[in-house]
Amino acid sequence: MNEYLFRHQDPATGNFVGKPGGIEVWIITLTLKPVNPSIYLVPDTAETRKATEANLIALQQTLSPNSTLLLSSLRTAIGTATGVTDYTLDISADITSENNELITIGDITWLTA
Questions:
Q1: Fewer CB under 10 Å: which end of the chain, C or N?
Q2: Which parts of the sequence belong to the Baseplate J-like C-terminal domain (predicted)?
Q3: CA 39 to CA 84: how far, in whole Å?
Q4: pLDDT in the model for residue 3
C-alpha cells in the first residue's frame, strides 16, 4: 500500500501521481465486530429486504473504529427503507467498539410471522 500511495500511474491520465507531502500511513490491525440483527419487516418482501439491507450497509459505511452504532441510527435505517411501513428489531441498545474494532452489519435474520 505504501508503494501505491508513494507513486502510481493514474488510470485515467497515465500520469504518475502519489500522496501529497506530509501525509503518512499508519497501518493498524482491526477486528471486525459484526452486528447480527433479527428483523421482522412489514411488508416482508424481497424489495423491502433489499432496501433495508442497502440502508444498513450505508449506515455501516459511516462507522469508524472506537465509535458507537446508535440504536436510533439502526432504527432510522430500517424504518426509512423504501416500502417498509413497520418493523421489529431484536437490538435494544447502542453498540460500541474499541480502538481496534470496526462495527459491521453481519448476518441479518429475517423473521417471519
A1: C
A2: 35-110
A3: 12
A4: 72
Say if CB 78 and CB 26 are below 8 A apart: no
78 phi, psi to nearest 5 deg: -75, -50
| Grid cell in block for residue 98 | 474499541
The grid cell for 99 is 480502538
Q: Fill in the amino acid letter for 28.
A: I
CA gap 100, 26 in Å, rounded: 13
State residue 20's pLDDT score: 64
CB neighbour class for 3 (10 Å; exposed up to 12, middle 13-18, buried from 19)? exposed
The alpha carbon torsion through 62, 104, 76, 88 (nearest 10 deg) reads: 180
Quote the cell numbers at residue 91.
437490538
Does 108 have pLDDT greater than 70? yes
Return the domain boundaries, the chain: 30-110
C-alpha cell of residue 4: 501505491
The total of other beta-carbon atoms located within 10 Å of residue 97's CB is: 20
